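Q: C-alpha cells for this one, please.
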Amino acid sequence: MDEWSSGEIYESYVGRWSRLVAKEFVAWLDQPEALTWLDVGCGTGALTSTILSTASPAAVLGVDRSAGFVDYARKTVQDERARFEVRSAEELTDESFDVVVSGLVLNFLPDRVEALRKLRSIGKTVAVYVWDYADGMQLMKYFWDVVGDLRPADRDQDEGLRFPFCSAEGLEGLFTEAGFADVTTRAIDVPTVFASFDDYWKPFLGGQGVAPAYLRTLDESAQAAVRDVLRDRLPTEADGSIDLTARVWAARAVS
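A: Here is the predicted structure, written as C-alpha cells:
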C-alpha cells in the first residue's frame, strides 16, 4: 500500500528531510572529484542535487520508476551534468559507474539482495541509506504508534514492523549476502522541526508514501481520530512548533 506520483506532495512529506540526510551522506562517502555517479530511486532529486552541489561529479544519472518524480527532478535540478530516466531498480543497464547510491529505496525492492548484487556489478563504490522506521524516524513512528493503538488490526501496516532490516546489522547482513566485504555502516540523524501541527499533519493527507496512502484508505471519522490522538501525543512547544528528529541507517562498501 503506497503511492509515488507527485513530487511536490512528497517533498512536503519526507523529501525536505531527505535533503538534510543527503548532505551528511555524501560528505560521509568522501569521494574524489570528477567521478560518474548513479542515483537509483532518485525520487525528486534530493540526493542527486546534493551530489552535484557538494561532490563535484563528472556526471550523475538519476533513475526512478515514478514518472511524476522524474518530471519534478528534471524541472528542479538544472545542471548539465545531470540526466534523469524513468526506470526501476530492476531495469538497470550494465553501464558502469564510479559510485552507485540509493536513498530510501532498498526496503521497497522485492529482492533486496539481488538488487545489491546488481549495484555491485555496475558500481565501484556502492552506498545506500534507509529510514530507521522502528525507532528513529519519529514523524512516522508517532503516526504508526497511534494507528496501532486505535486500530490494532492494522498494526501490520507499520513500516517499522514491515522493514525490520532497516538497521546497521540488517544492512550489513544484506550487503554481505550480496557479496560485499568490509561493509561500513552508520546512523545519520537530522532535525525535523514542524512550525505547527498542521505543518506536520497536512503532508499525511497527500497520499504520497506508505503512511499517507494508508491514511487515505480510512473514512473521515477514522482519519479524524488518528489526527486528534496525534495532536495530543506529539511533543508540542509553547509556540505550537513540534521538534522531532529523523534517523537513517547508511551502509557503504567497495565492489
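A few notes: The radius of gyration is 18 Å. The longest strand covers residues 181-194.
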